[in-house]
Amino acid sequence: TMICELTGMDVANSSMYDGGTALAEAATLSCGSTRRKKILISAAVHPEYRDVVKSYAKGQYIEVIEIPQVDGVTSLDALKEQMNDEVAGVIVQYPNFFGRIEALDEIEKMAHQDKGMFIVCSNPLALGVLTPPGEFGADIVAGDAQPFGIPAAFGGPHCGYFAVNQKLMRKVPGRLVG
After folding, report:
1. Among 59-63, 105-109, 133-137, 168-172, whose mean pLDDT is lowest?
2. Which tens digits make up the pLDDT trace of 151-166?
3. pTM value surpassing 0.70
4. Percentage of residues in the chain having pLDDT higher than 90
5. What is the pLDDT of residues 6-57, one digit of tens each?
6. Do 53 and 140 contact (CB within 8 A), yes or no?
7. Of 89, 102, 104, 132, which residue is 20 to 30 A from 68 by alpha carbon distance?
8. What secondary structure letter does DSSP report for 68?
9. Are 107 and 120 in contact (CB under 8 A)?
């Protein structure tokens, strides 16, 4: 419930391994739902998360295209050039790896123009003060709940979260809560 409130989404699952795998699951869900095999991911997304997305994508024969960043934010011009009806989803981070705030309202319009999905990776602690991605029309919001201070345990200190809109609730990986 707290993740839904922070992200502005309708449904959240009960934990994934970590934020990187949650984001990769978001990418594969968008491909499965749209029946497309191309993901656009901002170069301003955490580099380790981008690597996990690419690893998942390789096994699913999904093409991952990195959209360059300019001055610490996603290049909207480069994103516009890559957008077409073959794109399953657009992934950005909010705040991004450089601590900058992306233009989610503009990116959402581009992602949805050809019926692609808008995926936002977000630090849930930052969402306590930022406008929730759901209010910008995000289809999926994923990330890591470790910023809440989850202590180290057997296998690591991470806990990925995954939240979606009502339309996607039956496609969520993992267990549903509430």
Report:
1. 168-172
2. 777 767 678 999 999 9
3. yes
4. 82
5. 999 999 987 788 999 999 999 999 999 999 999 999 999 999 999 999 999 9
6. no
7. 132
8. P
9. no
DSSP code string of 96-165: -TTSPPP-HHHHHHHHHHTT-EEEEEE-TTGGGTSPPGGGGT-SEEEEESGGGTPPP-TT-S--EEEEE-
Which pair of structure tokens corresponds to residue 159?
């806990």
Of 107, 110, 82, nearest to 92 by C-alpha is 107
Rounded Cα–Cα distance for residues 50 and 38 (Å): 14
Q: Quote the pLDDT of residue 159.
A: 85
Of 147, 142, 136, which Cα lies nearest the Cα of 172? 142
Closest CA to 105 of 67, 76, 143: 76
Token reading at 125: 């602690």
Residues pairing with 76 in the sheet: none
Instruction: Estimate the crossing angle of helix 19-34 against helix 47-60, to 10 degrees.
Output: 40
Spatial CA neighbour of 38 closest among 82, 6, 77: 82
